Amino acid sequence: MSVLSATSRTIRYLQGIACFPKERRLGFLEMGLGIEKRHEDFGAHWEAHLLESKAAQGRLVDALAESSDRKSLAILGAGRLLDVDLPLLNDNFDVVSLVDADPLCKRYWRQVHTTKIRKHLCEVSGVLTSWQRSLKKLSPLEFEATLEQIRSLCPATLDEMPRSSFGQ
Question: Rounded to 5 degrees, what angle do the CA atoms 90, 54, 122 make?
Fold first, then answer.
């Protein structure tokens, strides 16, 4: 482990505590930075897992090759994108949504430069049930109402959030 990366991680954590107290209370800052550190320390041991994760994404794309269901894909817990084959997914879906609760992911997501990628900073594990209840109330034929309900449930994308020097 390099002193520079440990110092950088510590600074980002301290900034995260100040800027994102809720996310810190829920443990998202620690979880994300922990993954980052373990990848740095044990990256060679993780390589097989990362390759298999990306291979599984390739199999998904292959399985959907003849399907019209390749319009959009959401990656829940996208994190630092270590196990995401973003070029493959970007080439094969109209829209790819990155979703994670750790605001420190913004640093990695800002390196993605394509209009097909949507970035959502939100915690979904505790809200999926309420989303499902909200959407079940609507008729499947009410497409515009369904889209409006989804928009009301989702936070702004990172691209729409005010820019700050944090996490860059």
Answer: 65
Residue with tokens 């922990």: 34
**Tokens describing residue 168:** 């860059």
Q: Which three-class secondary structure string do you get for 3-57?
A: HHHHHHHHHHHHHHHHHCHHHHHCCHHHHHHHHHHHHHHHHHHHHHHHHHHHHHH
Contact 65, 43 (CB under 8 A): no
How high is the pLDDT of residue 52?
A: 95
Encoded tokens for 100: 């994670």
- CB-based contacts of 163, cutoff 8 Å, min separation 6: none
Residues of the chain with confidence (pLDDT) below 70 = 1-4, 69, 126-129, 140-141, 143, 147, 150-151, 153-168
Q: In the 8-state DSSP scheme, what is residue 74?
A: E
Q: Which of 119, 109, 126, 129 is nearest to 160 (CA)?
A: 119
